[in-house]
Amino acid sequence: MNWDSLVDIANAMVEKGKGILAADESTPTCAKRFDSIGVDSTAESRNAYRDMLFTAPGMEEFISGVILFDETIRQSTLKDGVPFPDHFKALGIIPGIKVDKGAHPMAGTDGEKVTEGLDGLSERLFEYYAQGARFAKWRAVLTITDDTPSSECVSANAHALARFAALCQEHGLVPIVEPEILMDGSHTIEDAFIITEEVLHTTFYELYAQGVTYEGMVLKPNMVLSGYDCASQSSADEIAEMTVTCLSRTVPSAVPGIAFLSGGQSNEKATAHLNAMNQLLNGSGPWNLTYSYGRALQAPALKTWAGSSDNVEAAQDAFLKRARLNALATMGEYTVDME
Ligand code: 13P
Prior knowledge:
Elements: H1 6-13, E1 19-22, H2 27-35, H3 43-54, E2 63-68, H4 70-73, H5 84-91, E3 94-98, E4 103-105, E5 113-115, H6 121-130, E6 135-142, H7 151-170, E7 174-181, H8 189-209, E8 218-219, H9 236-250, E9 257-260, H10 267-281, E10 288-293, H11 295-305, H12 312-329
Parallel strand pairs: 1-2, 1-10, 2-3, 3-6, 6-7, 7-8, 8-9, 9-10
Antiparallel strand pairs: 4-5
Helix pairs in contact: 7-8, 8-9, 9-10, 10-11, 10-12, 11-12
The structure holds 1,3-dihydroxyacetonephosphate (13P).
């Protein structure tokens, strides 16, 4: 596979029948996930957990790329001591890296956040490329309430996403541009549609203004969904229709693919919604629609693993099951009875 050109890498990341594993939880997020299974989060336990996922036999059939965290890109397989980026390269899986420094309080707003990490990013991208990374991720976080997101918050985050994306392309890495609108709150699906449309318009305006090549990037958006606390929850078909309409209004057809985040949806729903969108498009959309899930790919494996090497095989089976079902969903070929 030719991973030299941005366009080739971006296309390989969103290849039909495959998706991206987001395994880039920061150390504090990892500690939260490990708390839920009663495991101490240490460099060793995090290495063991990632090794369980990354050595799942045959994962390359369903996984095109893996997003790593700074600590993880420097760790290795337990059995043979192969650095994870080299391990992936041998499997034909593209290694990627989370490069933002998290969402921090934004001055002048009522508790909103802007993602930081542009300082020193050029040097870090240089190092990550040398370590084997061929794509990078930056996540902006927006919240829907009566008063938010403010236009300042939307535009500051879009500006940072575009600066990140332009820098990545300059360093030979494909940017995953992730403006995430959280499901927290009681907003309706119509509210989510309006805000997602505004955020994506603003983001693509900034990407254009800063000279980002659409053909060499991947968008990682939220699906258009009502908030967790909204009394009315939509059907998979309605979610698919609203999400595809919103994307068709905002995402240029030059973008090769859209890899959704799961955002706290249940494993089954994240799969069913992706499947419904691909059924709706029926192979005719301008972009490939795939997954870049964290929780919705890992949750059953994390629970089954529970920190014990005795459970590795069963945990890998749980991970591969979700990967396989989501891979089918990228082709609209998933059905609930496969669960
Ligand atoms: P979730 O799929 O768990 O939302 O995580 C995806 C991700 O990469 C968040 O940045």
